[in-house]
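User: quick one
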Amino acid sequence: MSQQGVTPQSEDFSRWYTDVVQKADLADYSPVRGCMIIKPYGYELWEGVKGGLDYRFKATGHQNAYFPLFIPESFLKKEAEHVEGFSPELAVVTIGGGKELEEPLVVRPTSETIIGWAFQKWIQSHRDLPMLINQWANVVRWELRTRLFLRTMEFLWQEGHTAHATHEESNAETMQMLDVYTDFAVNDAAIPVIPGRKSNQERFAGALFSYSIEAMMRDGKALQAGTSHDLGQNFARAFDIQFTDDNNELQYCWTTSWGVSTRMVGAIVMTHGDDQGLRLPPKMAPIQVVVVPIFRKEEEQAPVMEAVTRLAAELRGAGVRVRVDDRDNLSPGFKFNDWEMRGVPLRMEVGPKDVANNTVALARRDIPGKAGKSFVAQDGLAATVVALLDEIQASLLQQATEFRDSHLHEVGSYDELVNIVRNDEWALAWFCGGAACEAKVKEDTSATSRNFPMHQPHPGETGKCAICGGDATEMAYFAKAY
RNA sequence: CGGGGUGUGGCGCAGUUGGCUAGCGCGCUGCGUUUGGGACGCAGAGGUCCCGGGUUCAAGUCCCGGCACCCCGACCA
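Assistant: Done. Structure below.
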């Protein structure tokens, strides 16, 4: 059961976040440092993410499979950059069944290696391509500093792995999945993400190019909410993934990988939440409409409950996820606050007045206070509610977009960049992509480049790197990141 | 691994220069009254005061040593 309020966002965003996650019953701490227990309400939210992504994966021709949790340690070492990037955060099993293992087993931090091994077995001919696989799984990374949903030692995610005959095709796949993530984030999670290419410094260990969708949280920090990697032939060479082309020549495949994790749940919380707690976009909300019955006298109960039951059934019939809060030990006022904290988009109150007038009261979560509350007719309620949920979905996206755009500035000089970024806003600047420049920004501000956005603000133009003054062909976002 | 903070019923906390039966609010259980913005009464249950040493007639409180967790940095989806 949730209690009382949460720390205001403006006072302490970090505390606000951990308060909300726990009080809204999304997650709890575990007995093991850095791990989390995902509670039913939080897991339903994750299931919403899964559902929204999974059908998009299938619509783009991918199939789900499952690969083992344990990976031979030697596999990780086959790709030089990959092992270098991941070895500091590996959990390794050295004892099994009471005996020391001949070869230690790594608990997967990601599955490029074991899936590469499988692809090598499965792919012989160009007719076997493209190979389009996704898996829903847990992975483990021994993180130094963790945060509920945003970074835990074990987390849930999906990882797509594909193999193609040409770089053109694998590149197209990489971009397609970046688009899929963007579409999901914007249209389902109502998060106005910015898709773009990572700098070489921020690239995935072993990738040719990494792409990301970057989201702005309400404290101005950036959160990488999804990644799509063009792995080139790096893993194909390391795992010998070869096929015979139509000229009977042996070729290495071109592979990709792409992932979204339970971090997305954190992104939803930190994009939409306010001082009252969560605000969930209707498409993601486990409960879209909560019905609070109100009656003062015994004799009012039956007619109110009759209306509640009837209307709830009508809404369910229209495909709306409805929860009737019939807990009899709590006052309506308590329930209002409770469900607001849990982010339910729409609250419906049904009381004696409504029974008499053939109305219900609807209160929108996206518009606080009296302004968001109105009385509407019971006739045609399902249509009213469905339309209102669409409106709330759009309104949350609009609010988040306006917030983002007002905290994002194109800068012309390094001083400007530094000032903007130190102020927890995003700077859009010409950037040469150089490691030295990136390091300087990090040194001076602790911010990093987020990405080179796919939609460049000045297409076709070039400029001078805001950091070193050298030639730059693209602009990049810089921001502090989670 | 550095810096800061916190460990006392389920949660949030108080507990003075060591002192007597360890308190308060919320929650929980039962009964009754309540219910349009966080209800109320009555009666209950619930504690190795993070762990281990030490000082003392006496330790939640003082000393030493551990451990855990949270927040801020370095590493990262």
